[in-house]
Amino acid sequence: MLFIKDLEVSIEGKKILKGLTLEVKPGEVHAIMGPNGTGKSTLANVIAGRDLYEIGGGKVSYKGKDLLELSVEERANEGIFLGFQYPVEIPGVSMTNFLRTAVNERRAYHGLDPMPAGEFLRMMEEKKQLVEIHSQLASRSVNEGFSGGEKKRNEIFQMAMLEPELAILDETDSGLDIDALKVVANGVNKLRRPDNAFIVITHYQRLLDYIIPDFVHVLFNGRIVRSGGKELALELEEKGYEWLKAQAPA
Amino acid sequence: MPSNEQDRILENVTSGEYKYGFVTDIETEVAPKGLNEDIIRFISARKEEPEWMLEFRLNAFRQWQQMKEPQWAHLRYPEIDFQDIIYYAAPKTKNTLSSLDEVDPDLLETFNKLGISLDEQKRLTGVAVDAVMDSVSVKTTFQDTLAKQGIIFCSFSEAVRNHPDLVRQYLASVVPVHDNYYAALNSAVFSDGSFCYIPRGVRCPLELSTYFRINTAGTGQFERTLIVADEGSYVSYMEGCTAPQRDENQLHAAVVEIVALKDAEVKYSTVQNWYPGNKDGEGGIYNFVTKRGICKGSNAKISWTQVETGSAVTWKYPSCILLGDNSVGEFYSVAVTNNHQQADTGTKMVHLGRNTRSTIISKGISAGKSNNSYRGLVRIGRKAENSRNFSQCDSLLLGNQCGAHTYPYITTENRSSVVEHEATTSRISEDQLFYCNQRGIDTEKAIGLIVNGYAKEVLNKLPMEFAVEAQKLLSISLEGSVG
Question: Which of B3, B88, B126, B414 meets the CB 3.0–4.6 Å disulfide criterion with B31?
Fold first, then answer.
């Protein structure tokens, strides 16, 4: 589904990713861990198409297409979803209107008519229940006045609504209490299917108690320095990142 | 507004061109260019006006000659040559029209193209229309229906002929002839506009609306609107306007007066979409308008809602004089400027009666190289005890070459009143656009969503028929303004 080969990325002349290789297949959950400032968020943003970055080399293909050739909205409509680390507020735009626009844009992209209003509202109710959101969030403006936890839950809710093929969650667990963390994790677990994939970026092992990854990758200094199964996360928790730093090439 | 409707509107918007830029080829009678007493006599004669009306005009003209163009607004435009303007242009028609069949088909077609049906059979919503082309009213619909309740809704010229007492009583009672340069000019040369009188205790069953259209090249439009709401009555009035696309500038200087007597309520909504000029700032309408209402009796209420997207230059301050005790004034505005447009707009709330209240919500949106200024005056008089004003002035910037300015003037002459003023300036951030893009929404649509969300508080105040139009306009006006 996603194949990244020797990706090199810099921002304002500073190299962040230095030859990163990663393959994600349908049905898989990949966890990317690593200390702060190693390029985890850069990777998420480059896949989503943020234009702040210069691509120095390498390839990214997604469903057989050259991902780097697609605009941000084309990538989204092709099924890539980014759960933001810091979701922005859009005052005055209701979640309902926002999501309706997003859902219908996706449908238009695939040559489908807009979803009828009744069907859309039913879908919202259904997804709210699925991800255990009981608040009136749908009638509020996008992220406006939401607490940190609400914003993250809202990202999961949007993910449920948009049914992505590849979802990247960028430190969705940061700043969450244990209850909110469970909501986020349950959301992901319920949305897991054989035909979709997740990249879960996290600083802590904690989230992986609830989302069991198929693969764990450790990103350090712009490269994946170690990959393994879920037990790698535990090892990392035990030994700390210092352990890896000692092993990593400079 | 249901969101599917909103989506439909946003989807419909695919080309950013001004859609109303066409010219109707119709035989037109025009006065020679220039302004002097002979021209005024010519206009008055064409309208078969009584002597007192001609005198009113001549008096206004003499006062205007003594006055100077105001320079205080945050606007820049070349000096206007008032002798290079045609002050009267009228599509040639029979003298009086009793049925729609007698209206020139070209005129009907023009208004159809503008989305204004003059055919009462075809009305979809409860709206009566007075259609004004250049200097004359073409047709007023539903006059008979309204007359059954004693409501007068007609062109201003008709009112002068048929209801002279009412016109004489209220004309210039809110905006005196010498009020300002453009009001004096309008008083001298005003051509047509609407007159409306709602009798005591009557709730007007239809939305009344006037649609103004400038067609002839080189003409100015100087319309005059007078709305009188007698005790305990209610009316909602809407005004719309467009003009052909030309590379010359055309002048529009209107006066609107509203009188609300005891317990009366008037809602006045405008969607102003005069031709704004092209991307390089060539052409467009100069819009110098004086709009003012007076709450004459206690518990009267006047509410102005405007969506300003058009004109090269806008100078306009719909105001309320709150004379009656407990009277209420409201001003809700969305002003959009793009390319080289300039707007200096706002309101005046003059509190004279006790327990009077006013609300001002102004949303400015600037894009391109435009300048958008809010200028608002709140004056609470000595006797206006326990009065309140709340003002909120927000500016939204798109891009980095435009300007937003806020000029509040506040005076309070008693201690029991409260005035609150809030102002914010924000811009659509890259982060917001990226967030929308990541959800599959392209930048153009994202701006439409964000701008409509930003202006929602004001758009919600518009009558339904207008809200649709206004949302559409906001999106069109801002097309191509980012990226």
Answer: B88
Asked if the C-beta of B458 comes within 8 angstroms of chain A's C-beta atoms, the answer is no
CB B439 to CB A162 under 8 A?
Answer: yes
Q: Is A142 helix (H, G, I), strand (E, B) or coil?
A: strand
**Closest CB from B10, B436, B454 relative to A92:** B454
Give the tokens for residue A94.
Answer: 């209701």
Percent of chain B with pLDDT over 90: 44
Q: Are strands B388-397 and B342-351 parallel, antiparallel or unpaired?
A: unpaired
Chain-chain contact of B437 with A72 (C-beta, under 8 angstroms): yes
Pick B438's closest partner by Cβ from A82, A91, A99: A82
List, for residues A80-92, the tens digit of each pLDDT value: 999 999 999 998 8
CA-wise closest residue to A58 among A40, A46, A74, A70:
A46
Q: B441 and A87 in contact by Cβ < 8 A? A: no
Chain segment A112-170, per-residue pLDDT in tens: 999 998 999 999 999 988 887 776 777 789 999 988 888 988 999 999 999 999 999 99
pLDDT per residue over A189-212, tens digit each? 999 999 999 999 988 888 888 999
All structural domains of chain A with their residue ranges: 2-247
How far, in Å, CA of B376 to CA of B362, rounded? 10
CB burial of residue A186 (10 Å; 0-12, 13-18, 19+) = middle
CA of A82, closest CA in chain B: separation in Å? 7
On chain B, the residues whose CB falls within 8 A of the CB of A77 are 440
Q: How many Å lie between the alpha carbon of B443 and the closest alpha carbon of chain A? A: 9
A15 pLDDT higher than 90: yes
Complex confidence, ipTM: 0.95
B5 interfaces chain A, CB cutoff of 8 Å:
no
Q: How many whole angstroms separate alpha carbon B460 and alpha carbon A83?
A: 32
Say which of A81, A97, A158 has its CB closest to residue B6.
A97
Torsion of CA B109, B115, B118, B122, to 10 degrees: 110
- In the CATH scheme, what is the code of domain A2-247? 3.40.50.300
Residue contact B454–A162, C-beta within 8 A: no
For chain B, what is the mean pLDDT?
A: 83
Whole-prediction pTM value?
A: 0.80
Verify whether the Cβ–Cβ distance B439 to A158 is below 8 Å. Answer: yes
CA distance, residue A224 to nearest chain B CA (Å):
25
CA distance B391 to B376: 9
pLDDT band at B311 (very low <50, low <70, confident <90, very high): confident
Mean pLDDT of A107-111: 96
Spatial separation of the C-alpha atoms in residues A67 and A56, rounded to whole Å? 15
